[in-house]
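The data are passed on as follows:
___
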Amino acid sequence: MKFTITLIMLSCCLALVVGTIGCQNVEANYQEGVTALEAGDYETAMQRFRSAAEEGHAGAQAAIGELYYRGEGLPRDAQEAAKWYRLAAEQGHVDAQVTLGWMYNEGTGVAQDFPEAIKWFRLAADQGHPGAQNNLGVRYRQGKIDKNDVKMAVSWFQKAADQGMAPAQYALGQMYLNGEGVQQNTEKAVELYTHAATQGLLEAQADLGYLYASREDKVPQDFLIAYKWLSLAAIKGDRIAKTDLEKLAATMTNSQIEEAKELVQKESS
């Protein structure tokens, strides 16, 4: 990661042929753009970003891509966004690589191209980006890269999960629960679901509540914990969780429900 950043700065200096002062000026323009953007001054932000971007500043290029993509301070233009994201991505800007990969995956601003999407996801994943690692896990699990290579899916999900990526924790939990690409391990699945649920991932909350309510293998039946997670998922609009919660509540005492509601309140605060 540090090596990549060093290369970007060296490239900047060589392009300007004015040494350290030139690089400082380019960086100053970028930082002024950031300050203007935070103040809601999109016109000044774009001017400063463009000045730095035209001198090869990857962060400024990515920022322009973001402004075009979101349509902030100017009309939304996904094609123009993709152009600027590519310039930054080609310099190793990891967030630009992930976004560009997503755009190729979805066909947004560019023609849909799954191999191209995978290329950019992999470049970002190799730099340690958890979102890109999760995306590769998804594509391997779907058989979109190498058919039935679920072990590679597990590997990428694990890398992202270790960095606290909730969707990766949930996906990996599913794989442990079902014995998909790994030895079946319900306790490990619950552990991963809990990490994701604590971060607020609805799917993990709903599944975890169901597991504790239904007394799956190696998951101790615990109505209070089940109520907590099902409630949180139901609050977010999960209809199945709401139905499961109603069924669970019918089997609980009033004191249990009151105690469970306190757990919900603590988790929500």
Remarks:
- The two ends are 36 Å apart (CA to CA).
- Residues 1-21 have pLDDT under 50 and may be disordered.
- The chain has three domains: 1-125, 128-199, 212-269.
- Residues 212-269 form one domain.
